[in-house]
Amino acid sequence: MTAQYPTGAAFMYLNQLEYFAATIEAGSFLAASKKVYVTAPAIERAVHLLENELGVELFEPAGRSYRPTLLGKKLYEPVVEAIADINRIYDIAHEYSADSLEDAEFNLVIASFPFRCGWLAPALFDQFTQEHPNIDLKILSSSNGACLEAMRSGMFDAAVVIGPIYEGDLRSRRLFSFPLRVAISKSHNFASKAYGHLSLRTIAQYPIARPIDIGTCYKVVARAFDEAQVLPNFVDVRAGDEPRFLQDGGIIFVADHSSIRQIAPDSVIKDIAPRERIVLPVCYVERPNETSALSERLAAYLATFGERMRKLQSRGLGIDPIK
After folding, report:
1. Domain ranges across the chain
2. Rounded CA gap, 255 and 213, in Å?
3. Rounded to 10 degrees, what is the CA torsion of 116, 126, 175, 85?
4. How many CA atoms lie within 13 A of 226 on its CB side?
5. More confident residue, 200 or 175
6. pLDDT digits (tens, 9 = 90+) for 256-298
């Protein structure tokens, strides 16, 4: 990409840095768009503006796509650190406002991320409740669809769900994203370390446990197979039947969390091929006319956790919010 040197004051926006980092991590504008749920052209424009503001080239042509320049690779770590620093600024500001909060009750409903593991557990909020002992935080775990219904009914003050929400009386903001992996039996043909990443075409050769949350999670997974032009063999698997399903050669989409070991202790977790990664965004949902300092503080707390998780992912480590 050809950069133009700035002639005046440059303005750098947080989303430009986030999209740049996402493109480096994902490998292309298209892959990054699936990660941050913004169109590929929008990401490319933001990165091009960032190049103009810096007066350097961050990406260069590579066939029909782009690859990071040496400088682009060198700037990745400082950019990630800058994003974290900016989030800490927001965090400190929210802490200041939260210090003055009076005793309050806050009802939160969180999606259990039904990929056969309770990935976002209530224990994640232990530190928040310790820091704010005057806040009575009531948490309920449910499916994605039930969380949204609870918000629509007015029963809860906020929700943490998978995927953005576009409704007039509800507003959502992305907190972070997490990649899906697949669980297979230790006796499976592809359990060997010789098989690193599994393509969707390979996965589709075996029975696949249908994601329980049809409204959101299943659609995302099904769309990934559709884009890969592969027809998956989804099978309905009842809770508790996962070990037998895996032993019979089945495959289960999971989040990389230690609780999967409780459900399928003899399973092997495999990554999906990089170009076909399935990434789910975690969003904070609230009502625009009912925002509060407490709600903002809680959202910032979750965003900070998301940044920590992102660093673990960039190092190729697993993600476990309770650790």
Report:
1. 14-93, 102-177+280-314, 178-279
2. 14
3. -140
4. 6
5. 200
6. 666 666 767 788 989 999 889 888 888 899 987 777 888 888 8
In CATH terms, 14-93 corresponds, of 1.10.760.10, 1.10.10.10, 3.40.190.10, 2.40.10.240, to: 1.10.10.10
User: For helices 40-54 and 29-36, what crossing angle results, to 10°?
Assistant: 110
Tens of pLDDT, residue by residue over 221-235, are: 999 999 999 999 999
Residue 180 in contact with residue 221, Cβ under 8 Å? yes
- pLDDT at site 140: 87
Long-range contacts of 193-199 (CB under 8 A, 24+ apart): 195/270, 196/270, 196/271, 197/270, 197/271, 197/272, 197/273, 197/274, 198/270, 198/271, 198/272, 198/273, 199/228, 199/272, 199/273, 199/276
Amino acid residing at 93: A
**Runs of H (alpha helix) within the chain:** 14-26, 29-36, 40-54, 70-99, 126-131, 144-153, 200-203, 219-227, 242-247, 260-263, 293-314
Residues paired with residue 233 on neighbouring β-strands, in sequence order:
207
pTM for the whole structure: 0.62
What length is written for the chain?
Answer: 323
Sign of CA dihedral 34, 165, 42, 305: negative
Percentage of the chain beyond pLDDT 70 is: 81
Q: Which of 158, 61, 63, 44 is nearest to 109 (CA)?
A: 158
CA atoms 23, 24, 26, 27: torsion sign: positive
Out of 3.30.70.100, 3.40.190.10, 3.90.78.10, 3.30.160.340, which CATH number does the structure's domain 178-279 have? 3.40.190.10
Res 100: pLDDT:
52
